[in-house]
Here is the input.
Amino acid sequence: MSCRAAVEVVRVSMRPVGLPEIPEQTAAVARAAFPRGSLAIRLRDRLAEVFADEPFAEAFGARGAPGLSPGVLSLVMVLQYCEDLTDRQAAVMAVRAIDWKYALGLELADSGFDASVLSKFRTRLADHGMERVVFDRLLEHCRIEGLVKAGGKQRTDSTHVISAVRDLNRTELAGESVRAALEALALAAPSWLAGVVDVAEFAERYGPRVDGWTMPRSKARRERLAQVYGQDALTLCRAAWADDAPVWTREIEAVALLRQILVQTYAVRTDSRGREVVKKRDADDEGVPPGSIRLASPYDPDARWSAKGEDLFWLGYKVHLTETCDNAPAEAEAGLAPRLITDVFTTVATVPDAKATAPIQQNLTEHKVKPAEHYLDSGYPSADLITTAHHQGIRMVTPVLLDHSPQAKASAGFDKNAFTIDWKTRQVRCPAGRTSSHWNPVKQHGKDAIVITFSVLTCRSCPFQKQCTNSKLGRRMLTLRPEEPHEALVRARAEQKTDTWKSKYALRSGIEGTINQALDITGIRRARYRGLPKVRLQHAFSATAMNVIRLDAHWTTPPGRTRNSNLERLHYRLIA
Here is the structure.
């Protein structure tokens, strides 16, 4: 199975054979070395059908040199994430670890494969949208075995993911973007590049990487350097987009990104003398793009800057994990179904949690593990999402945002709950018994809303005016959602104040431990790769590895066995 030569082959074909049979000698040695088994051995014995070749057929051609079995490579990657190994370490383990050889079906003398095979396999999966194939197959296997099912309780939470590229300020980003484009063009079109720029000057300026520590100390000189970066970027872009330039030069990713970064960082103006000036954009004058579309690195076009609260700022992504939570901890240790991750959803850092709620629930529904109760924190719900989920048979157990009106915040006066709404007559009655004068359906932020207005004459003569409104016009206005989402929001706000709901919602906190386990075991908070597709692949394999570890604990823990302290064990011996 040694295939170091396959690394150099561009076109790779696949012959679906699945995991190879375990050689007798390998099996004998593995059983002798691990009389109680190991995770890798049990993984091969119990879950071999998960790692089939057929689901990966579209990612491989019908012609070309036969490559390594995708089932074998996916198994290697799962074991790699179970032990948080690099590609080189995983390749070494396939050579020297007896239980890995057993799992992969290798001869004892097999020399393994080159570490770069894993990188190329990941690229192939990401290019064909197969990031979740192994995760989904394992989830389906667990569903068939009755370890996970629809209709139970599940919980979801997110954590930030730091990108695999370094943080750059705007000046560093401009210079490094020019450098990245020059590096790509020097390799792809050296003759063309030599004809459009002064190679000696650019090599001196962009030879080493652009780093803020080596920039001039004075503000004036740094601003001048930023202007030079902008002029060089403009020169290079104009050359690449010239009529006589090869079209494919502008299709190089680094060159295309340079153009975007040039536009978002600089503005080209003409001064009073008619001279062209490249000026760094100012947020107050020329304006800068919003964080959701603003590039932050020439090496990872999907990484974005984001913030959470006042203390957390990061460049990268966000991952959402969903797990089952039907069993209490004591029940899980007693041999019942383990808690398994049912969905992993990765987005860029700027996507709010509420935007992930519907896709997560859609994924759960498609994989036939839709929960009856879905526990989430306050970042996930909205009135529309709660209503939609209810129609789909999912009850969202989550705190909703409270009324933000001045009256509700001050806990004085009349908030929205003090008004009686008659949806049939399309009128609202205030606490003083007076009715609204206007009912206006509108669109706000792309969503349906209703603006309720009371007459100025009605409000000015009201003895409760000061408790109701402080508007300059002296009249009260209300903004409501349509009837169904409004009523859902009112019920949720009332329910979350009860002790029963608070006790029930405590179940959500367990997802924090799952995220911490993912951080400790698979390093999920740091992206190993660049680009959203590969980061999604990383998280899918991380979740698969966590499920394998939990399944292994489920297989090896005798029913009824619980964790007892030394003092408890002493107590049991004394009373025996």
Summary: Confidence is low (pLDDT under 50) at residues 1-9, 328-334. The longest strand covers residues 312-324.
